[in-house]
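Whiteboard transcription, Tuesday session. T.W. wrote the structure tokens on the left side:
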């Protein structure tokens, strides 16, 4: 084992992601019409983590870790209304019930392995957090991820 490679690591990951949400359904409350809810999400994340290397050779590491995800996001193209746009006031009284928040924090848990110093493969779970602040209309976000990393140094 290389003495310069440690068992514990502190890691900070930066990320950017774009996603879309869209759901069509019939309202279960008045006015009982076919409805659609949708929005676009652009997220910027900073994830400080503590990583523990269970197996720690120079060209292979098996690790697990935990951390916090600090997520800042911008919502655009939000729509809540009739499936037959344009939405009329008689179809829906409120067209923006989301009350989105602009930042949220979550916990993350990660397992993975690293080979040849530069390549990493991982599975990650991020806990669910609310992305709306309205008590009537509630949406939450969680993430289950499998990925590949390339470490530059």
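and on the right, the sequence the group agreed on:
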């Amino acid at each position: 084992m290389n003495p310069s490679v440690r068992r514990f690591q502190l890691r900070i990951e930066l990320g950017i992601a774009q996603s879309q949400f869209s759901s069509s359904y019939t309202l279960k409350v008045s006015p009982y019409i076919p409805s659609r809810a949708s929005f676009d999400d652009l997220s910027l994340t900073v994830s400080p983590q503590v990583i523990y290397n269970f197996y720690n050779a120079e060209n292979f590491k098996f690790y697990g870790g935990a951390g916090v995800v600090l997520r800042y996001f911008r919502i655009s193209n939000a729509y809540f209304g009739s499936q037959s746009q344009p939405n009329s006031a008689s179809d829906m009284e409120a067209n923006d019930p989301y009350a989105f928040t602009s930042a949220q924090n979550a916990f993350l848990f990660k397992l993975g392995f690293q080979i040849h110093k530069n390549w990493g493969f991982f599975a990650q779970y991020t806990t669910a957090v609310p992305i709306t602040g309205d008590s009537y209309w509630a949406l939450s976000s969680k993430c289950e991820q499998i990925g590949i990393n390339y470490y530059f140094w």
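Someone added at the bottom: The chain has one domain: 8-150.
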